[in-house]
Task: structure prediction
Amino acid sequence: MSLSVQQRAACNRTLTMAVIVTVVMLFTGFAAAYLERSHTTDVWQRIELPSVLVWNTGVLVLSSVVLEWARRRGRTDGIAWATGLGVLFLAGQIWSWVELREQGVMVASHAHASFFYMLSGVHALHLIGGLCALWAARRKRRILPFAAGFWHVMAGVWIYVLVVLTVL
Amino acid sequence: MHEPMHEAPHAAPTTFIGKYIFSFDHKVIGIQYLLTAILMAVVGGLLSLMIRLQLQHPEMQLLGPPEAYLAWVTMHGTIMVFFVVSLAISGFANFLIPLQLGARDMAYPMLNMLSYWTIVPSVLLMLASFFVPGGAAAAGWTMYPPLSAVPEAVPGSGLGTTFWLLGMALFIASFTMGGLNFLTTIVNCRTKGMTMWRMPIAVWGFFIATVLGLLAFPPLTAAALMLLFDRHGGTSFFVTEMVVNDQVLLPGAEGTPLLFQHLFWFLGHPEVYVLVLPCVLMTMEIIPVFTRRPMFGYRPSVWALFVIGFLSMIVWGHHMFVTGMNPYIGEYFSIATVIITAPFAILGVNLLASLWRAKIKPAVPMLFALAVISAVGFGGFGGLFLGTVVSDIYFHETYFVVGHFHLMIGTVTLLSLFGALYFWYPKMFGRRMSEKLGRIHFWFTAVPMITIFILMHMQGLGGMLRRTYDPGAYDYNAGANMMLRFPITAMAFILFLAQFVFFWNFFRSLKNGEEVGENPWDATTLEWTTPSPAGHGNWPGALPVVEHDPYEYDGDDFTPQGRVVETASEEGGNA
Result:
């Protein structure tokens, strides 16, 4: 590996931007499908989303804030905390699925439930990618800005998903 | 910010496997893509011959039951669109981007290697799907539900469709990895003096196509995921209750198949431009070399590209005029579609004006370029009729559509790719392909290809429907439509046989072709300033420095776009 540091950073910036655009287009596609589906059905039955999601969203936002603080101060322990909070968020997501399951709401029960399971699942997969990037960034500090950028966007995407599922 | 990539981002390979199999070198990966595309072209071509034979002799039931016919059509479309043309474009993009921009390699060579080796299982899945119970997918390359969503719908809707979806998932993953690499390399790794406005126009083509692909593929991924949920999770995003013989197949399902069509064509239409634009622009790249004059209208063409790219994202509905959409929306899609004619006309003027009063050197790549121009012309005219709602309602689902899209994304692309292959072959292998065999290949490829699809337009005007495996079963086909059937089939066979001339030429020239130096065509762009074939790191010494626009030709004189300054103090050589 012998690209100059600046060049590697410039490449990483372009790559991260492109990845973010791709992910945003993916969720835009889902949102468009949701909008079309929820407005063309006669009876659009909503499920009640588990209350754990409120706390969970807080955890993800907190993780983002901690990560940003760690990035600005150059604190490795901060990255570890943010990663831990990310794992906690994933655990919370699984909890929300378990809770829905106990209420008898399965993936095929209602279209709204299908969208919830699918969107939270796809978001979780992307978040796992983000966690790997954060884990790597503990050692390789130069990829931290890009891992952090992706992490913030994933927090934003989760809020977007929640808004789509509750408002539209 | 861009800066020269002074050293290759990976060490020179030492083993056979590192050099030719799991290579990090963009040139090897490019050639791997091209060879895979050629292999799949044989499969896709054989499928088209089987389709023609079936249409010619429906009474023989060559392919088995009617559903089997649909499976061959589906796989022919899928293979040709995604595994021949797309892969060949990826091949050229891989090969050309670093060489034309003066970079040592792609920005992420490892990602590039993974991108190719993700395609391999994808190809294997597609090929394997012919042999699973029920046969290959049969819902058309567009995979519309319910045929794709309900495993019991037709035989191919079972395992065949599952294989198809998995294959496509891998394809999209591979395309995304490749696209991220192309984009990053173009934006960040150009050599000194290579501003965006000095890039060879083919690179602009790869750039726009990549941007379009990265924007358009994710919604298709979303659609494919929902389809998988419908197939295997019991959800109803796309399926309705479906009453067949008074029997409700999927009680409680209340989805909408139209939703899939919207999501599909939101990818599908930009995908057309992902295929056509890089091909047309590679042709544009070739023309100045053989007219020995600067390209006409480089900047307007690039601006036109941006406009075409933008418009292509907002016209998907013109594939869906007959789905019962609101007439006002149809009118909007129609107007937006016809507006694309304007930027495309700029590209057309570029192509034609570049030829005006030029002393054309009729080498094989140039012959293919000329054929591409005529195919773009014929294909474009058909598009006007299909882009307008009132006429499309009549032509939809007829051979007019088949003829049109084969001219645009079949003929234009394949002829461009052949031209590009003859043109860059010396840079790939250090030898030239035979001109004589090239000419034979050209005439027996270009003429049948264009004629076949023009005749199909005529059948469409006569009302012949797509997707029927026995056109003779309908009385209205009895006249001209049936008369045109034989010439089309005969020419399809001539076309296929002519490709053996190409294979012979391609593989024989690897050993016996005339050896060439750095710049056999007297061309200006950077790839011709390094030995043929280029070694590890692309330039043996320092990187070339760009001092000129890409197409400064003046008759037999020409000013290379850049030159290698050996006295430069920069550390460069690592070959």
In short: The interface with chain A takes residues 1-3, 5-10, 107-108, 176, 179-180, 183-184, 187-189, 214-223, 225-226, 229, 233-237, 254-256, 259, 262-263, 266, 574 of chain B (CB under 8 Å).
